Amino acid sequence: MKSSETAHTVQSTAEPVSFLLSKVGLTVLAIFLLLAAWNGQVVIVILLGLGLSVALLARAWSRFSLSGVSCERMLSEDHVFPGEMVELKLRLINRKLLPLPWVQVRHTVPDHMVSENGVAEETSPNLRTLDHTAALFWYSAVNWRHQLQCNRRGHYHLGTITVTSGDIFGLCPRSGVYPSQDAITVYPRIYPIEQLGLPSVNPIGETRAERRIFEDQTRTIGVREYTPHDSLRYIHWKASARHQALQVKVFEPTTTLKVALFLMVDSFAGNDPDDFEVGVSMAASMANYVIQGKNQAGLYANSRLPLWEETVNLAPAGSTVHLVHILEALARVTSQPSGSFDTYFSDLYSSLSWGTTCAFVLGEPPEYLESLLSRLKEGGFKSVVFQTGKRKRNDAGLAGAWHTIKRPEQFARDHRGGTA
């Protein structure tokens, strides 16, 4: 179980329940006590003395109530898939001789993760506050447990923890706000490609052996004469001058398939929010399909990630660790684009290695899609489109394959009642 101990408070404040318990109030009581003693008012002196003693005891107890107190929030897992449960354990420890006659602990969690009734108070449309109360003896601890239901993709911060305690009379409560970096990352659900309406064989288009062999641009093994089908990018100018005829580079063949997945975030604007979630799951499922097939997958998205303050740019690779990085990025993407995908893609185009298959996940096809696919075809790249929206295909047959994605039955069950 992963824990985060918060032993130092960011802010510790005492809030007396009455003006008479404040410094000014205590000063006034002391002055009245002296005046009563000066005038020989025994009863008043006794009453004021008792009141002043109780007030001073309450303030002293309150002042040291949170000393030596620490709070640990432990999560059974901090990275999960939709449908999994996370156990949250809160442990409050009193490491001093002074007991805590009462203590209250409050902390926030995402609203949709809490299923218990009667223990949580809704503080905002997306957050819920969990309240706990207890009494702690010297050198003792108390634990609370909750089960968090993780159904929605996202990266969720659990927020700070507020611990309130004080004197036995409750006259001078003191609150400490404890920092916390705890977060739960919920990956997008990975579906078998058949459940997304894709063919179980060749979902990215024709992949027969003779078509699947690419050339590794980084390994040149010779030159040959230029043909009209060759890209101008690979002309060997020195060899052409030597032979007095155009020569192109010959690269070492490779059978590794490289797929660059492009999530066109701005193409989902105005669509059903569930279309975007299906698109994210589509990208995750395809990345998993490609990498599990011993090939390479990369991810690009024109979405600025919260906290990261950058777009998603993960070049194709084939390791399991790389797949985890892709899922992590997809857990954080939002439906808010960082800018136009057309501009975003133009900046990336020169970094694409030859032989890469460009797979576009989109909502509704934008007007510039045809020119974008035409540029890829002229550059020798293969392209495929995965669409979640309903607008008709507008690529003039330039894409190697065009698939309309359907919502799996499991998606409807996961997102019943709205999306994150």
Describe how the helices and strands are arranged.
Blueprint: E1 2-6, E2 11-14, H1 23-38, H2 42-65, E3 69-75, E4 79-80, E5 84-94, E6 100-110, E7 120-122, E8 127-136, E9 140-150, E10 154-157, E11 161-165, E12 174-178, E13 183-186, H3 209-212, E14 214-225, H4 237-243, E15 247-254, E16 258-263, H5 273-292, E17 296-301, E18 312-317, H6 320-332, H7 341-348, E19 357-362, H8 369-378, E20 382-387, E21 401-404, H9 409-414
Parallel strand pairs: 4-13, 16-17, 16-19, 19-20, 20-21
Antiparallel strand pairs: 1-3, 2-12, 3-5, 5-9, 6-8, 6-11, 7-8, 10-13, 11-12, 14-15, 17-18
The average pLDDT value, as a whole number, equals: 79
What gap, in angstroms, lies between the N and C termini? 26 Å
pLDDT under 50 segments (min length 5)? 5-10, 207-214, 416-420
Rg over CA atoms, rounded to whole Å, is 32 Å
Query: Into which percentage range does the β-strand content fall?
Result: 25-35%
Count the beta strands: 21
Number of helices: 9
Largest sheet: 6 strands, antiparallel
Structural class: alpha+beta
**CA-based shape:** elongated
The main sheet orders its strands as: 2-12-11-6-8-7
Fraction of residues in H or I helices: 25-40%
Order of helices and strands: EEHHEEEEEEEEEEEHEHEEHEEHHEHEEH
